[in-house]
Structures are given as structure tokens and as C-alpha cells.
């Protein structure tokens, strides 16, 4: 620890070079702590021992329960000393030792005495210690002292009480809330810090009462708040009120905007920045509102304080995501930050410039970034790579410069996540910019020649296999792929074999040479490689083992698996080896939605599905068996889809009901799962009366009531409706649970003879378009899209209006359609202004349907969407458009 | 939320630390991260020159004072400017206690006073009533 130091110091010549804690050891310090028991206390000696104890604790040393208790009891004796310094050390060590509830009582009276002491320092610290170690019981005893302390004329004492109140609000809120009046008085204190603490506590007390917070903000914004810290808090609370009010004043202005604007002229930089940030984060902020905030942030960019520069560039970076044009005035200032010593600032400046730059500045920006990249850590580099990707998609004509840049940094040193980010970016650019394909594939080929990451090599090889054969000269990629077979590990070699096969399948001219290469692979040392080579040689060689035609071969090589992997895994686990081989057609294709969330009252049991038959591997099979066993529904045909259970009652209700919608071609059956949660009641003849006034296409044809519903024993009742065959009819139903209720003696279990008719209102339910689509994904969307063909394609554009974000718009459309997102496209990257989402499903009538959604969002958050639908049936494509148009 | 305040020697040894709401298993990571941050950036830095960084949506403001490196870590309402204010208060307290930018020896000699001052700072007490 004590190392000789190079710096000169006037004291150095006089001091011996030693540490006071050298060789310190817990056992000996605990021995030394016996001085606390001396009748004649030496304050200086005791302070030294406490210092050593603190040092041990700060070095990670821990005391056993026994040791801590002994030290604590010894320390309490130090209250006898009147020495001020020692008393403060005592307060500190008590907090560090954190005595248990039964130990606290020893020191309570001493601390309470100190709370009423004439010495301000004693009062303040005693309050802090007591509030740290006390529980609710003691708190009620000392409450009046704390209330007095809050309005104490000494601001140290007042602050101590207020800050303690903030901590205590977490554990004893009902007690602290009683101090509102005193805290309110402290908000008007002339001492800045007291005002700050009082405002924080008052807000926390009232935070669940929107009106109270609004009144607090209104009164304070009109008055004078002296403390800059309190001003910052007030700005944040004002932002919260603006967000929650959501309405403009009669003059059309945003409420409290004038206050925020006035804070931009405050003398404290902290307040100015807080106001600027609050303005930039306003919902639906206009350019006119933004301008003064961006002006002050621009000034901060040139500050000599790195904290201010960082704060400003970070805020401008966020603004650039939604209002890039508003930030362009700051471009010159930000360009000078690229060479800032602080790499966080430099990275933020670059990523902001990448968002706000125009097409003509791209080349200049790339030159500046090239030198910068070697100076920063991988996590910053990934941020820059993602920003470059977005820039390239924004300016596709600049793909050459940006692709060259990405490929050059791909060749440099870097970790796995960094390289993956670059590869993903190149793949996205190849996918979205057709002109960039050849150069992008070439860069990827060069990369895999010297790639240390197996995951990336296999990812690129797979991509090459899909895209390479479609280029103008596929043969130039063969060398790179075959080199992997010779030089790499088994995983990469196997992947390369598959890629070679894909080339052979699609490019007839290359087939003979591919055969030669694949035959060499038959001698590989790895089983997987040899197996794949054998399989592909037979497949492409046309021995009939995989289909008869070229199309069959291509479907095998490029086609999607057609079943979800999770379902396949479950079925394979359940398969028992027998003479009958495993049949992939038996794997259910529907992707299971998330199960219904648990009811809010954890004490109550959720409404069960009743006695479902055991054995079937999927829920839909179970439903099918259940419904076909009911004579009224057995003639409805094949069950298309069953929805997830949807609650029709709130938590903590007497009767809990959820509904499952079973969709057939010409019928819909509603299954109501009911649970009686009242032990003193037995329900009989339970049925649901459904009003279909708002569902004109539906007509009720059958119902099956539930004979008996005892306590805590779930049961089902059904109602079936007829609808036009093959038509995705929609409608809203209001529901009433009707039953006869009989009293039950809980002690004896006897039920009354007579019952009373009663009814119970349930929530409405809707049949939606999404109910007619099964979520069936595809693993390779592009192939599936191309194989479906454009004959039944329908394309149209829609305006979705103003939305909170692109993510919200994408999720809303996915929910309306009820289709399965593919290839992870349901996730919208942060800061995106455009996004493509791929959906797949099966429409009622077993028609496969694929959807391509292209979203774009502009400055005022108006979202436009282009919908392209391909299906096996043109009426289905039309139906999907109809759903969106009316949704 | 103010997550941590840490004092270390310029060589990397931890002198004083305070964590709030940080699980024990994460503290080791924070210690090594902060010490490395200081080792990379504080060489040749001037006394009281503020540095700022962010790591996993958390902000760090740090500086050097004599032989001691001081780090404050926070998130949410304790953004970089609030942390800078906290750090300035801590620096001011340190200067009150040690008079000059402390050497390691002086720091360890005043260890108890420094712990008290840190406690005062973190509990929001102003400088007037602290004793020298």
C-alpha cells in the first residue's frame, strides 16, 4: 500500500514513509477495541480505534455476528464521552455496524437524548442514525421530534430530518405522509439544500396524486425557487405534469412551456441543461419549441468542462433520432468534438453526425471516422457501425464508400460482438441495396479467409449459399467456400459442404465441378461432413431419394422446415422408437402463444380448463377431442384454431370466468371456463347469455349449460354460433352469466333444496380478424415468398397516423393481423426511422399467406406503411388488406 | 440514484468505498472497472479536472486529487451534471480536511475525518458546520 511517490511535497521531507494501517489485522483491532470499556476514556485513542475499524470494513473485511455485537456494545459506552469528534465517529460506526432490532434498543435512549441536544451536530447526526437503524414501532415514538426537526431553524438539522424522511418513506410511508404540513413549510426555506430536500420528499409523498403534484408544480413555478438543485427537480416534475396532462392551454401553447423556456436563461448551468433536456424530451415537440433548447446545447458543446460537453452531445444525439434537421446547425461544433480527448464524447459526436449528415458530407465524415475508430473500445465501435448502417440505408447511393469502410474495419482487430455487428450490417446492406450485393459478398468472402469466429464463418457461408448462386458469376465464390473445407474446423467444413451443394443445385454449369469437390469431402475425418457430402451428392445427383424433380431438390435445400423447432423438439422427445418411423407431418405447425398471465390476486386459483383428456401432445388436440365429444358440436368439421383463454372477470371476484374461442369454417364455439370462489354457494344450470346485436353475421345455434358448479371446482359451459362459411366474420358480444345459486353450509357441506336465480355481468368479448389466422412461421421467408409467386400478390399503402414510436406501430399491426413474425423482424432497432417486418400464417381455409410490411416514420411521428401480401388464394390477399383497411 | 462513491490510490488500491443498492457480486466488477477507467484516463491529469464516462446506462464522473482518485457513479436522476455537483462537494470537503491535495500518507492519516466528511456529503450536509 505505501509506495514511494514521485511527486514533491513540502511535507514529504518531514514525514516517515509509512502507512498508519500497515500490517493491520482484524483480531488485533478487536483487541484494541477494549479501550472503549475503560472508565477513563481517551477520546483520541478511541477515535483511532474506530478509524481502524472503519478501514477494515472498507477493505472488505467482515465481522461475524458475535464480533459485530461485541464491538457495538463496546461502542455504546462511548456515549459517556463529551468529545465532539469522538461522538461523530460513534455515529458513523453505529451506521456501519447496522445493529439488529434487539440490539438497537441499547442505544435508543442515548440517541433520543442527542436528538434533543443543544448541539446542532448531535441533533442532526442522531436523527440520521436513529432513522437508519429504527423500525416502525420506535419511529412512532420519535415522530414528533422528527416533525419538529423538519422545521428547525438550523438547516443541517432540517436537512437531516428531511433526508431521513425520504429513506423512511420506503418502509413506513403511512408515518412519513403525516409530515406533509411540515415538509410543505420547509419547501419555503431560505436554505437552498433544505428547499431541495423538502421538495424531493414532498413530491415523493404526493407522487400518486396527480392533482396534488400538478398543484405543487403550479405554485412553485410561479414562486421563487432559490436552490439550483431544487430547480432541477422542479423542471423534472413539470415535465411529468406536462406529459400527464397531454393537452394544450386555451392559447394553444403547451402548459408550463414558458417556465421551461425561462429556465434556459438561469445562471446555473445545471438548471439550463435540465430545462433544455426537458424541452427536447417533450412529447410531440415542434421545431419552434426545440430551437431555444438546441441553441443552448450548442453553446455547451464548446464548453471547457467535459461534463457539459458530454451532457450536451448526449442530448443532441437523442434529438437527432427524431428531429435530425433541427440539429444540423450544430454539425460544425460536433465535428470538432470528434477529436475530443474523452472518447465517450467523440463517439456520441460521430454517431450524431451520422444521423444529421447529408449525402454530400458522407465522404468527409468517413475520412474523419477512419482515424477515430482505432482509438475507441469495441462497445463504442459497435454504436458507430450501427449508425453507419442506418446512414447507408438512408443514402443507398453512397453504398460503395460505406461498404468499403465496413470491410476495412472488418479486417482490423476486434472482438466477436464487434465483428458480428459489422457482418450483420453488411448482410443487411446486401439485402436492402441490390447494387451492393456483389461487392458485399466479395468482402464477406475475404473476411472468412481469416476469420477466427466459427459462428460468423458459418453464418456467412449460409448466406453465401443463398445469395451467391444468383449473382452474375457464381463461380468466383467457389474457391473461398472450398478453402473452408480444407482449412477450417469441422463445424465450418460442414457448413461449407452445404453451401457447395446449394451452388450445385442452382447453377447447372457448376454442377460437375461441385460433384468433384463433394466427392473429396467423402474422405473427411468428421462424420457430419461426410454425411452431408453423401446426402448432397445423392440429392443433386438425382437418385430419387429426395423427390423426383429439380423443384423438389431445391425445396429440400432451400425450403423452410415448415414446423416450429420447439414443436419438433417436443414431438421428437415424445416419440418412442417402434416399427412406425417418426412422421414429421404429425408435428403441429401452430406456434403456441404465451400462456395467459396469472390472475392478479395470487391467493386465488386461476380458472382452470376443466378435465381435459390426457395424452395429446398439444392443447389444440385436447380442445379438438373435447369439442368432438359434445354431440351439439361434433358436426362442425375440423377445428381450425382455438384462442388463448381471455379473462372476462376482474381479479378478486366471486365468479371467475375466462373464454376460449374455437374457430371452425362455418361456426364459432365459445367455451366459458367458470370457477366459483364462494365456499358458501353452489351454482347450478350455469350458462352464458350472449347478446349478438353487434355481431350481425353470427346466429346462435346451440348451447351447453353447466349442470353444477361447486366451490373451487372449475367447469365449462359452451355457446355455438353459426357464421358464413369461409368468411372471417367479426363482431362484439356482450355476456351475462346466469345461474341458480343455492346456499351451502360450509361446516356440514349440506346444500339448501331451493335456489335463487341470479345473474352476473361479464366483460364483452370480440371476434377479431386475427382469430382467423394461425401463427405458422417460415424459417426462410425469402424463399417462401419467391416460391409463392406474384400471381395473387396485392400491394397497397396506408397511413397509420401519428404514433408514439415505430415499435408501437409495428406491434399494433402485428396484433391486428395475428400472424407470426419471421426472422426476428418484430424487433425494431433503436433509433430506426424505417423498418421491414415479415409475417407468415395460415388463413382459415388452410391458405398460406405471407405479408411484407414496410414502415416509415417522419419527424412529426406520422407513420406510413406499405403492405404487400402473397397468398395461395387471391381472396385471402384481399381479406388481409380488408383487415388493415378497417382495423 | 447515487450508486457508488469510491476513493482509490493512483496505483489502484481501494481506500474508501460506499455502495448503495449494488449487490455484493456486482461490486467486484465495479471496483475493477473504475480502477481501470482511472488507470487509462487519469495519468497526467490535473487535480480536480473532471472526467465523465458512461457504462451500461450508468454515468461516472471522476477526478484525481493528489494521490487519490475519486469516482462517483449514478443513474436516473443522478446524471452527469448531478454527479459533477456531488463530486465538487466531495472535493471541497477533502480540501477542507487535508488542506492540500493529499498524499497517500496524509490521506491515511486523516482517514477517520475523511470518512466522516464523506458521510456528511452523502447525507446532503453543507460545508459550514463540518469541523476542521
UniProtKB/TrEMBL annotation, chain A:
Biased composition (Basic and acidic residues): 586-601
Coatomer subunit gamma C-terminal domain sequence ranges: 770-884
Membrane topology: Peripheral membrane protein
Protein origin, superkingdom: Eukaryota
Domain Coatomer gamma subunit appendage Ig-like subdomain: residue ranges: 622-767
Role: The coatomer is a cytosolic protein complex that binds to dilysine motifs and reversibly associates with Golgi non-clathrin-coated vesicles, which further mediate biosynthetic protein transport from the ER, via the Golgi up to the trans Golgi network. Coatomer complex is required for budding from Golgi membranes, and is essential for the retrograde Golgi-to-ER transport of dilysine-tagged proteins.
Family indicated by similarity: Belongs to the COPG family.
Annotated protein name in UniProt: Coatomer subunit gamma
Native source organism of the sequence: Protea cynaroides
TrEMBL record, chain B:
Key word Transport present: yes
Keywords from the UniProt entry: Cytoplasm, Cytoplasmic vesicle, ER-Golgi transport, Golgi apparatus, Membrane, Protein transport, Transport
Entry GO CC: COPI vesicle coat; Golgi membrane
Gene Ontology biological process terms from the UniProt entry: intra-Golgi vesicle-mediated transport; intracellular protein transport; retrograde vesicle-mediated transport, Golgi to endoplasmic reticulum
Key word Protein transport present: yes
Family matches, as InterPro entries: Coatomer_zeta, Longin-like_dom_sf
Location(s) in or outside the cell: Cytoplasm; Golgi apparatus membrane; Cytoplasmic vesicle, COPI-coated vesicle membrane
Membrane topology: Peripheral membrane protein
Family that this chain belongs to: Belongs to the adaptor complexes small subunit family.
Function noted in UniProt: The zeta subunit may be involved in regulating the coat assembly and, hence, the rate of biosynthetic protein transport due to its association-dissociation properties with the coatomer complex.
Subunit structure, as described in the record: Oligomeric complex that consists of at least the alpha, beta, beta', gamma, delta, epsilon and zeta subunits.
Protein name: Coatomer subunit zeta
Source organism: Protea cynaroides
Amino acid at each position: 500500500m505505501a509506495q514511494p511517490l514521485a511527486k514533491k511535497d513540502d511535507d514529504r521531507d518531514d514525514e516517515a514513509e509509512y502507512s498508519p494501517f500497515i500490517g493491520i489485522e482484524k483480531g488485533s483491532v478487536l483487541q484494541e477495541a477494549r479501550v472503549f470499556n475503560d472508565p477513563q476514556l481517551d477520546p483520541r485513542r478511541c477515535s483511532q480505534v474506530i478509524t481502524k475499524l472503519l478501514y477494515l470494513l472498507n477493505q472488505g473485511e467482515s465481522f461475524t455476528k458475535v464480533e459485530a455485537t461485541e464491538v457495538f456494545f463496546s461502542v455504546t459506552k462511548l456515549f459517556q464521552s463529551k468529545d465532539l469528534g469522538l461522538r461523530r465517529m460513534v455515529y458513523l460506526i453505529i451506521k456501519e455496524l447496522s445493529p439488529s432490532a434487539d440490539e438497537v434498543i441499547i442505544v435508543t435512549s442515548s440517541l433520543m437524548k442527542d436528538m434533543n441536544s443543544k448541539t446542532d451536530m448531535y441533533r442532526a447526526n442522531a436523527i440520521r442514525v436513529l432513522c437508519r437503524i429504527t423500525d416502525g414501532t420506535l419511529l412512532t415514538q420519535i415522530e414528533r421530534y422528527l416533525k419538529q426537526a423538519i422545521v428547525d431553524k438550523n438547516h443541517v438539522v432540517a436537512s437531516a430530518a428531511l433526508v431521513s424522511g425520504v429513506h423512511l418513506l420506503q418502509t413506513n410511508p403511512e408515518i412519513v405522509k403525516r409530515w406533509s404540513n411540515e415538509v410543505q413549510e420547509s419547501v419555503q426555506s431560505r436554505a437552498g439544500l433544505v428547499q431541495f430536500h423538502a421538495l424531493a420528499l414532498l413530491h415523493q409523498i404526493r407522487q400518486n396524486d396527480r392533482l396534488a403534484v400538478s398543484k405543487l408544480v403550479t405554485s412553485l413555478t410561479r414562486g421563487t425557487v432559490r436552490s439550483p438543485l431544487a430547480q432541477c427537480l422542479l423542471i423534472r416534475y413539470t415535465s411529468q405534469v406536462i406529459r400527464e396532462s397531454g393537452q394544450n392551454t386555451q392559447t394553444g401553447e403547451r402548459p408550463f412551456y414558458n417556465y421551461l423556456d425561462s429556465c434556459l436563461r438561469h445562471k446555473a448551468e445545471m438548471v439550463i441543461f435540465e430545462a433544455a433536456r426537458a424541452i427536447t424530451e417533450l412529447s410531440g415537440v415542434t421545431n419552434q419549441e426545440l430551437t431555444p433548447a438546441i441553441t443552448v446545447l450548442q453553446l455547451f458543446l464548446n464548453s471547457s468542462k467535459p461534463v457539459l460537453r458530454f451532457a450536451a452531445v448526449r442530448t443532441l444525439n437523442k434529438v437527432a433520432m427524431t428531429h435530425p434537421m433541427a440539429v444540423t446547425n450544430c454539425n460544425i461544433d460536433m465535428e470538432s468534438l470528434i477529436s475530443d480527448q474523452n472518447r465517450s464524447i467523440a463517439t456520441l459526436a460521430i454517431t450524431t453526425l451520422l444521423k444529421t449528415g447529408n449525402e454530400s458530407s458522407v465522404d468527409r465524415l468517413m475520412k474523419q471516422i477512419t482515424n477515430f475508430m482505432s482509438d475507441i473500445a469495441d462497445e463504442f465501435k459497435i454504436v458507430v457501425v450501427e449508425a453507419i448502417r442506418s446512414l447507408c440505408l438512408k443514402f443507398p447511393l453512397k453504398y460503395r464508400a460505406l461498404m468499403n469502410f465496413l470491410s476495412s474495419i472488418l479486417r482490423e482487430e476486434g472482438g466477436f460482438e464487434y465483428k458480428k455487428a459489422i457482418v450483420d450490417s453488411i448482410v443487411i446492406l446486401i439485402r436492402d441495396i441490390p447494387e451492393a450485393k456483389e461487392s458485399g459478398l466479395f468482402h464477406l468472402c475475404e473476411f472468412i479467409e481469416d476469420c477466427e469466429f466459427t459462428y460468423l464463418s458459418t453464418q456467412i457461408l449460409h448466406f453465401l449459399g443463398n445469395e451467391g448462386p444468383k449473382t452474375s458469376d457464381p463461380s468466383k465464390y467457389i474457391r473461398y467456400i472450398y478453402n473452408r473445407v480444407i482449412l477450417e474446423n469441422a463445424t465450418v467444413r460442414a457448413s461449407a459442404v452445404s453451401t457447395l451443394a446449394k451452388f450445385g443445385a442452382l447453377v447447372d454449369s457448376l454442377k460437375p465441378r461441385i460433384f468433384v469437390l463433394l466427392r473429396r469431402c467423402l474422405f473427411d475425418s468428421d462424420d457430419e461432413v461426410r454425411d452431408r457430402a453423401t446426402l448432397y451428392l445423392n440429392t443433386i445427383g438425382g437418385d430419387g431419394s429426395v423427390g423426383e424433380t429439380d423443384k423438389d431438390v431445391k425445396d429440400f435445400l432451400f425450403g423452410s422446415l415448415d414446423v416450429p423447432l420447439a414443436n419438433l423438439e417436443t414431438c421428437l422427445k415424445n416419440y418412442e422408437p417402434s416399427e412406425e418411423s417418426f412422421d414429421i407431418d404429425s408435428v403441429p405447425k401452430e406456434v403456441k402463444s404465451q400462456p395467459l398471465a396469472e390472475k392478479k390476486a395470487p391467493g386465488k386459483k386461476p380458472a382452470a380448463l376443466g378435465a381435459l383428456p390426457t395424452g395429446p401432445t398439444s392443447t389444440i388436440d385436447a380442445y379438438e377431442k373435447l369439442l368432438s365429444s359434445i354431440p351439439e358440436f361434433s358436426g362442425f368439421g375440423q377445428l381450425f384454431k382455438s384462442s388463448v383463454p381471455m379473462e372476462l372477470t376482474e381479479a378478486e371476484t366471486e365468479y371467475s370466468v375466462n373464454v376460449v374461442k374455437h374457430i371452425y369454417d362455418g361456426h364459432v364455439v365459445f367455451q366459458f371456463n367458470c370457477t366459483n370462489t364462494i365456499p358458501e354457494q353452489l351454482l347450478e344450470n350455469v350458462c352464458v347469455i350472449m347478446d349478438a346485436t353487434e355481431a350481425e353475421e353470427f346466429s346462435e345455434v346451440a348451447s351447453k349449460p353447466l349442470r353444477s358448479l361447486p366451490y373451487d371446482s372449475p367447469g365449462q359451459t359452451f355457446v355455438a354460433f353459426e357464421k358464413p362459411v369461409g368468411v372471417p366474420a367479426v363482431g362484439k358480444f356482450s355476456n351475462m352469466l346466469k345461474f341458480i345459486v343455492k346456499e351451502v353450509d360450509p361446516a356440514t357441506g349440506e346444500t339448501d333444496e331451493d335456489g335463487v336465480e341470479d345473474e352476473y355481468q361479464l366483460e364483452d368479448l370480440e371476434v377479431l380478424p386475427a382469430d382467423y389466422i394461425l401463427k405458422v412461421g417460415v424459417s426462410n421467408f425469402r424463399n417462401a415468398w419467391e416460391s409463392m409467386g406474384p400471381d395473387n400478390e396485392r400491394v397497397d399503402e396506408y397511413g397509420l397516423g401519428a404514433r408514439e414510436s415505430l415499435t408501437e406501430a409495428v406491434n399494433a399491426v402485428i396484433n391486428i393481423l395475428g400472424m407470426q413474425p419471421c426472422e426476428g423482424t418484430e424487433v425494431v432497432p433503436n433509433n430506426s426511422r424505417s423498418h421491414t417486418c415479415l409475417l407468415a400464417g395460415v388463413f382459415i381455409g388452410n391458405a398460406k399467406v405471407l405479408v411484407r410490411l414496410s414502415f416509415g416514420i417522419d419527424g412529426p411521428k406520422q407513420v406510413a406503411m406499405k403492405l404487400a401480401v402473397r397468398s395461395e388464394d387471391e381472396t385471402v390477399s384481399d381479406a388481409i388488406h380488408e383487415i388493415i383497411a378497417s382495423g | 440514484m447515487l450508486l457508488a462513491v469510491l476513493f482509490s490510490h493512483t496505483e489502484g488500491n481501494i481506500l474508501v468505498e460506499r455502495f448503495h443498492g449494488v449487490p455484493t457480486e456486482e461490486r467486484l466488477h465495479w471496483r475493477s472497472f473504475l480502477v481501470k477507467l482511472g488507470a487509462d484516463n487519469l495519468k497526467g491529469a490535473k487535480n480536480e479536472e473532471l472526467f465523465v464516462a458512461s457504462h451500461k446506462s450508468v454515468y461516472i464522473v471522476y477526478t484525481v486529487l493528489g494521490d487519490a482518485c475519486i469516482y462517483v457513479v449514478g443513474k436516473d436522476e443522478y446524471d452527469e451534471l448531478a454527479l459533477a455537483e456531488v463530486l465538487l462537494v466531495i472535493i471541497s470537503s477533502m480540501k477542507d480536511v487535508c488542506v492540500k491535495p493529499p498524499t497517500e500518507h496524509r490521506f491515511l492519516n486523516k482517514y477517520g475525518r475523511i470518512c466522516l466528511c464523506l458521510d456528511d456529503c452523502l447525507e446532503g450536509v453543507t460545508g459550514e458546520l463540518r469541523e476542521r
